[in-house]
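Training component of the fellowship. As part of building independent skills, the fellow (R.M.) carried out the full modelling exercise for a liganded target. The chosen ligand was heme C. The inputs are recorded below so that the supervisory panel can assess the work.
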Amino acid sequence: MLTWIMWPLETPAPPAPPVVPTIERPGEPVQPLPHTTPDNPRKVALGRRLFNEPRLSGDDTLSCASCHDLKGGGADPRPQSAGFGGKAVPLNAPTVFNSRFNHRQYWDARAGNLAGQTISTVMNPEVMGASWPAVIGKLEDDAGYRREFAALYPGEGIDATTVADAIAAYEDTLTTPDSPFDRWLRGETGALTEEARRGYRRFKELGCIACHQGVNLGGNMMAGLGVMGDFFADRGRTPAEADLGRFNVTKRAEDRHLFKVPGLRNVARTAPYFHDGSVATLEDAVDLMARYQLGATLAPGDRKSIVAFLKSLDGSLPE
Ligand code: HEC
Ligand code: HEC
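Fellow's submitted model of the complex:
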């Protein structure tokens, strides 16, 4: 039997970001994305350069931006990214937009925060295939980086922690506020179409909200994929190691196929869907969720309304 796990897991989640969302519609289980201003623009600029820096990979070909398309949804439009040496990474790349509001990072929630995510992904032989000493050596050879790190991290300079800190500062700015849904949450009654408002109501009534909740409509708990049916048997492809989800971290039987509930912001821009990238359209993702997570078959009208609601979660992309 698959379980749900509410946060915190065994490791405490990082402290909440220092921003207070305004809630104009009290009692809603979703909060609008707050407007934030970076407190250190110079660090953000350094982080942005590092996010786009191929020297963070073992063979100088891949940057973070290679798999997280910031002009699209911040995710990878390919079901599986091409990782180090061109080999397919076994999981679909989630979006980096609004990732600061997730309580933990990765499908199996193994990283406690954004800096920890960067430290592990650079060394991951399937993803960037680098070693930190080699990366630091390459950045040390660049006078521009030496100057910026010396100014921003006096006494520390360039190391895994400071590189990851600068990238996390940049990622903190990758938020997408002011979606029609957020404007509606803040009280702008005309911001949502009637169809989308109906979709939000059905999203709550059907119980999607039990898992997709909070600022990101997800990212704050884990759930088994296939609570009400065997997704993996029906998918037809032999389950791979990556399909085991949280089990790969804990080795506990009850954690098999447990995944971090993904946030749904900008979800219309982040196809394909699910941890395995196996679902091509939002309509199919909604149907499969109803079937496997809630044991429900959606009426066509419900699917259409819920998709309209999900499309209303498109916010303004950072420039
Ligand atoms: C080769 C493609 C690739 C590259 C390069 C890459 N990523 Fe990812 N990223 C992924 C995949 C795939 C996942 C999901 C992996 C998992 O869950 O185990 C992921 C997950 C993430 C997450 C977690 C999001 C969430 O909701 O859990 C963040 C944040 C992230 N990447 C940021 C970065 C940063 C920063 C870099 C550069 C240091 C980077 N990525 C480089 C493919 C890539
Ligand atoms: C029991 C918890 C739970 C419920 C209830 C639930 N979801 Fe999900 N949802 C998840 C999990 C876990 C995933 C990730 C599954 C995976 O990747 O394998 C997910 C994934 C999704 C995705 C794909 C997101 C992406 O980026 O890949 C969409 C869209 C979605 N859910 C919408 C819905 C809708 C609509 C409903 C209600 C009809 C719903 N969910 C009900 C837990 C839930």
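The panel noted the following from the submitted structure. The two ends are 45 Å apart (CA to CA). The longest strand covers residues 221-224.
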